[in-house]
Amino acid sequence: MPTRPNPFRLALTHLVLLACAALTVMPVVLVLAASLRKGSTLISTRLFPSFDELSLAKYQELLTQTPFLTWLLNTVIVSVVASLIALVVTALAGYAFSRFRFLGRKNGLMTMMLLQMFPAAMAMVAVFRLLQYLGAATGGILGLNSLLGLSLVYIGAGIPFNTWMIKGYVDALPRELEESATIDGATPTQTFLQVVLPLMGPILAVVAIFNFIAPYSDFIFPSVVMFEESKYTLAVGMQSFISGNFSTNWTLFAAASILGAIPILVLFFALQRFLVEGLTRGALKG
Amino acid sequence: MRERTSGGLPYLYLAPALLLLAFLSLLPNLYSVWLAFTNYSLNHYSDYSFVGLRNFARILQGPEAVTFGRVFAWTVVWAGASVLLSLGLGLFLAILLNNAHLKGRTFYRTIFILPWAIPAFISVMMWQGLLNTEFGAINLILSNLGLDRALAAGVGWFTSEPVTTPIAWLNTPGWSHIAVLAVNVWLAFPFQLTTCLGALQSVPSDVYEAASVDGASAGLQFRRITLPLLRSALLPVLLSSFAFNFNQFAAIYLLTAGGPAVPGSEAGATDILITYSYKLAFNLFQYGMACAYAIFIFLLVATLSGVNFKLTGAFEDVN
Question: Measured between CA atoms, how close is A231 to chain B, in angstroms?
Fold first, then answer.
């Protein structure tokens, strides 16, 4: 690493970085520009709408004449349910793995490490069949075309990774408080609920957001288990915009892209530091 | 902390997680292994039965073996090229950004993280529109800049086939391979950039200062200090990214749907194992075959993970 800044080299660095930055934002800028057009098609000789062409008409059409809001709501329901259940279940499990010593602990942790390597998508046929059975058994509450059934799929897939993350975080918490609580006569469950749980706030926030983003962004499972348009998530619904005739729906799709990406963009940038750290640490671990 | 053996309490805490895991992860995985040994398909929907290794024999012999070989080879090339290109770009940008004299580093990092922060299905569908042959913005930009013919001629020189404009990014074998890879690099480089930057920043600066005092050039410092340290930090990332791209369903399926079609085969030119397995199951209703393909994916990912665990010593560290 040079100790003195070399102005020529710095200028060159900026030039290269700016070029790469331009290529990175290009698709998003082009789609944003398309979403602000009045017309419906891709056909245009100009990339950007002229100033008097600018309009929010496509956003209005999207919100009033398509099921976009229903799909968004479905997506949010699936993601919130998955996130909340995963949070409760993995907070308990992660704490138990970190603080208790019991028979089968080490094997349990290893099994979790193995399971986290295998994406749920590999078992998609079995998941489809499982939801078929569940639907028949529960009168449709959990089966195919059920938002609750879809969120179950994500909970199962995320448990190993989340449990490991929470265990790692609790491992690093100081134990003095718990020890003094125990000495004061608190039961293990009181200690967990009143002493440790409040300290787990940051990691629980990360787990909650991971488990919100993953179902929100998934395409494969809703495409397998959701058949009714009113039950589509955003991923499947937006694909129906483009799978027919993309060129006639392009500007409408563009508006949906912008609106659909905003919730995740906001979450991601607001919590960038935590998320990036958690994700890259998870990756570095394997 | 005192070793606390707490009777049944730990199992009570673990019960919900283990129950859900058994029911939602273990059971489906075992069930799909079972289905791989059956003739479960549209023709045998309610009366499917155990057929032994017949699905596997079909994959490894006869016409299906040609498809399997081609899809498998492309899956490896796809995953390998995706990782190397996105890691290469990420590392290059990380080295540029890891410069204390550079202004605007936060600005650049915010821009470069954007593809990571947009849900992948949205970005991939965006790219599908932008790469549209007749109406897409990419071809419009290229032809405005007069680059389309040059690009086509350049690639035509490699493929030794005439290349026409406008470029059919998603509908011709060569271009569609380039397009899916380019989009995947766009999707994946922010993650690699972030990991590389983290690894670079973990190298204490006095190591470089000492090397400078000893008269080592910047190039030598990079080769002898930066690269060896990066290698140990990045090898596990490399392997897990490879496994991830093996199953990178959305980037292929939502861009080309595995296409363009290849004559005499159900698998398209850009189909990877996971998209082909999906097609077999949900377009062709050959569930048993789809599960047999999934087992091949499983074996490959398991091998990679095994190597990864060995390298990082993850199993020895479990505590």
Answer: 18
